[in-house]
Write a structure and sequence with these properties.
With 224 residues, this protein is α/β, with parallel strands linked by helices. It folds into 2 domains: 5-122, HUPs (Rossmann fold, 3-Layer(aba) Sandwich); 130-223, putative n-type atp pyrophosphatase, domain 2. The chain is built from 6 helices and 9 strands, in the order βαβαβαβαβαβαβββ. It has helices at residues 14-25, 51-61, 74-89, 104-117, 130-139, 165-173, and strands at residues 5-9, 29-38, 65-70, 95-97, 120-122, 143-150, 185-191, 201-210, 214-223. The strands form 2 sheets. Strands 3-2-1-4-5 form a 5-stranded parallel sheet, with helices on both faces. The protein has a 4-stranded antiparallel sheet with strand order 7-6-9-8, with no helix packed on it. α1 links the parallel β1 and β2. The longest helix is centred in the middle third of the chain and has 16 residues, at 74-89.
Length: 224
C-alpha cells in the first residue's frame, strides 16, 4: 500500500474513533491524531470535551495527539485546518482519515480541501448505514457515552448514556439519527480494543449552554 502513514481527524467521539480503527485494520499507520478545539473555551469543537481529557484519552490509545486552536469563522477555520495538516504531514504522510457518514456538504468540503493540500482523504464510514456503524462499533468492543445533545431534541437524561442497541431504538422513535450525524448529540469513547484501559468517569454534572442552539453538556470534572 502506498502512503501508509496517515493523520486521523480526532474528536474523541465514536465516529472518528471507529474510522481510525478501521483505517488501522486496512493497514494504515496513524502518525498523529489531530484535534481542533475552540480558541475561547479550550474544548473540542462541537463535542465540548475539555482538552486535558482528550489528551488523557489519546494517551490510552497510544497515538500522539496534536491539538490546534481554531476560530468559529469558517474561512479562518479552513486556513487554520490547512496550516495544521501541512505542518504535521511532512513528506511521509499521504492520507488523512475522517469519520463522515452521509452529509454531502462535509464530504465535499473534505474532498476539496484535501485535494488542495494534495493529501488523500480516507472515509471508512462513508455511506454505511448509521445502525450498521453502531453495531460494528459495539461488536468491536468500543464503549462511548453521550457528552452533549441538542436540548430541543434530547433531554439531559441522555447525558452519560452508553451507545448501544437500546439507545439506537430510543433515538429512532424520536426521529434522531442513531449516529447523531446532524449534530443531535456527541459522544466520548471511554474504552475499546485500541485502549490500554477504560476511562472511568468519577465526577460529572449536566450543564446547559446556548449559542446557535441550546445544548446540554456533560461537564466531566474528574476521571481516571
Amino acid at each position: 500500500m502506498d502512503n501508509v502513514l496517515a493523520i486521523s481527524s480526532w474528536s474523541g467521539g465514536k465516529d472518528s474513533c471507529l474510522a481510525c480503527y478501521k483505517a488501522i485494520q486496512q493497514g494504515y499507520r496513524i502518525k498523529y491524531l489531530l484535534n481542533f478545539m475552540s480558541r475561547e473555551s479550550k474544548r473540542g469543537c462541537f463535542h465540548g470535551i475539555e482538552f486535558r481529557l482528550l489528551k488523557f484519552q489519546a494517551g490510552l490509545v497510544g497515538i500522539p495527539l496534536v491539538q490546534k486552536e481554531v476560530s468559529p469563522d469558517m474561512k479562518k477555520y479552513e486556513d487554520e485546518f490547512k496550516a495544521a495538516v501541512t505542518e504535521l504531514r511532512g513528506e511521509d504522510v499521504g492520507t488523512m482519515v475522517f469519520g463522515d457518514i452521509y452529509l454531502e456538504e462535509h464530504e465535499n468540503w473534505i474532498k476539496r480541501v484535501c485535494g488542495e493540500l494534495n493529501i488523500n482523504a480516507l472515509e471508512p464510514l462513508w455511506q454505511n448505514s448509521p445502525e450498521k456503524i453502531i453495531d460494528e462499533f459495539v461488536e468491536a468492543g468500543f464503549k462511548a457515552i453521550i457528552v452533549s445533545c441538542k436540548a430541543d431534541v434530547m433531554g439531559k437524561e441522555f447525558l452519560g448514556r452508553y451507545v448501544d442497541k437500546n439507545l439506537v431504538e430510543e433515538l429512532k422513535k424520536k426521529g434522531v439519527c442513531p449516529c447523531g450525524e446532524k449534530g443531535e448529540f456527541h459522544t466520548l469513547v471511554v474504552d475499546g480494543p485500541i485502549f490500554s484501559k477504560p476511562i472511568k468517569i468519577v465526577e460529572a454534572e449536566p450543564v446547559i449552554k446556548e449559542s446557535f442552539w441550546k445544548h446540554w453538556f456533560l461537564d466531566i470534572k474528574k476521571y481516571e
